[in-house]
């Protein structure tokens, strides 16, 4: 459920008070004018008083409803923060233990003995990505920071999550973006290449383009998608194939890139998929 920021709640209070003040003032002015007329004083007296009481009662009811919604929002935010913190901690612990088991089995000659551990690590990473996507979906108006970020360093952070994926990076650049949001975008793109495209290698080119833009061209050697499905990438709940997920990963990524002042496009590079991400350059 989307959380309402505190600033928006304050604006709701201001709007309700302004509406109440305006309507009551207008009704009071009409009531006073009516009472000043030489006839029908009694009608204006009771009808005007009733009208003003209804307006005041409605305004108070709106303020009470806003207050209750604000308390409900605060309770949900507290629960959500506590739940996600505990879940992130548990997933990180599982990931560390699985990585330890994999390190112990690196010298095993039979790859089949390492396959369950690799699958466990992939599932943990997938859960972490889904959790991050859910957090961004639940807070569509959440604040994103404007930080100076090294694109290559952000890409290098993703290697640990995909040890079997070859990532080749060319070029460099510095962008203005939110570190957590950029990590989520990159993880979603790499997850899509591995899980849905069955890619084993990804090539990333980082270039500066006119307009103070840094462009990331991410190409994988996976199976790609057909032309009809390509046009639907980035849309929520789009399924290019039966093995595809809900499409929320690329959808969240597209929205995050747009909120950071950039753009995200999809195309084909040979048989694989190409994802182009453009973000403002940090000077």
Q: Sketch the topology as an H/E string, one letter per element.
A: HHHEHEEHEEHHEE
- What summary fits the major beta sheet? 5 strands, mixed
Strand content: 15-25%
Assembly type of the chains comes to single chain
Query: CA-to-CA gap between the ends?
Result: 37 Å
Looking across the biggest beta sheet, what order are the strands in? 2-4-5-7-6
Instruction: Please tell me the overall pLDDT.
Output: 81
How many whole angstroms does the radius of gyration measure?
28 Å
Query: How does the helix and strand content classify structurally?
Result: alpha+beta
How many DSSP E strands?
7
SS summary, helix count: 7
Q: Domain count, please report it.
A: 2
Can you put this structure into words, describing what you see?
With 283 residues, the chain is of the alpha+beta class. The chain folds into 2 domains: 1-143; 147-280, Heat Shock Protein 90 (2-Layer Sandwich), CATH 3.30.565.10. Helices cover 56% and strands 17% of the residues. It is built from 7 helices and 7 strands; from the N terminus they run αααβαββαββααββ. It has helices at residues 6-35, 41-104, 115-138, 151-156, 179-196, 227-230, 248-259, and strands spanning 147-150, 166-171, 174-177, 201-209, 213-220, 263-269, 272-280. A 5-stranded mixed β-sheet has the order 2-4-5-7-6. A hairpin with a 2-residue loop joins strand 6 (263-269) and strand 7. Helix 1 (6-35) runs antiparallel to helix 2 (41-104), helix 2 runs antiparallel to helix 3 and helix 3 (115-138) crosses helix 7 (248-259). The chain is elongated and about 105 Å long. The mean pLDDT is 81.
